[in-house]
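User: Quick sanity check before I run a bigger batch. Here is a single chain. Can you write out its predicted 3D structure?
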Amino acid sequence: MVGLDQLLGFGVAALVVIVIPGPSVVFVVGRAVSYGHRVALASVVGNTAGLFVVMTLVALGLGAIVAESIVVFTVIKLAGAAYLVWLGVQALRHRRELQVVSSAQRGPLPWRTATRQGFVVGVSNPKGFLIFAALLPPFVDPDRSAVPVQMFVLGSLAVVVGLVCDSVWALAAGRARDWFAGSVRRGSALGAIGGTSMIGLGVGLALTGHETR
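Assistant: Done. Predicted structure follows.
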């Protein structure tokens, strides 16, 4: 069994790491300001599913491989960075279509597409491996129960914390988006900001070294 002290200790540690804006937060905020809170929440669902997959893989032993292999970490990091840059470029190209003036004039982003994009960002986010492969192990007690079971339970707690935090970001950004509804120029500029932010984040992620995960 996982003790209450383990849950509280890891829960607080995970919260501190999760609330720091990273790929998931920037992505969700970008979705919210470009498409609204519904698409942003769909992105959160996909991102959470991706994070859950990462957690499960780490619990099964992949975390140790990623933690020790520069090649594996680099491949995952570059894949996530490239995807963020691609999404940012698309946001810039179609920023005029993403104006918040009229939902009838803007091509809606299907819920499934938003969820799928969120999943790719979540499963390729190195921050997930940081939480599950580096932060989680110290809270595991081999004398209590099977280590994989403890990692899965504690990891699930972090996934829930991430879901709540990202949902708050999505709703807050969605509400701020309404301020731009009265200006075509503001809406277009907001789309450009969201796209530029994702490109910048992707480039920064690609340049991040293995030792600074």
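The chain has one domain: 4-10+24-208.

User: Great, the batch can go ahead then.
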